[in-house]
Amino acid sequence: MYIGWTKHLPTPEDKERFEKSIYGAKQVLDRLKALIEQEERDLDQTELDPKAYDNPSWAYKQAFKNGFRKGLHFTKTLTDLDKQVLPKENHDR
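Above: the chain sequence. Below: its structure as tokens.
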């Protein structure tokens, strides 16, 4: 689970409760991830068409697509509960 889901919570008990509710929604989050991946594939297809670059403002459209792709990637990271991001521990103690 992405650590950002619970870093705002003050106590371990709050974090545990919230994590349980997130894992309880895993089926919904997995479906959301699948929809995001389909959107990414559709976006990839638009970039393979040479006609996409026949417009003088194609660079602006590409910049929009890049930003959209970044948003999709971030959202997919949040929804992928199978990838755990652990905080760095202080080993100097």
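Residues 26-48 form the longest helix (23 residues).
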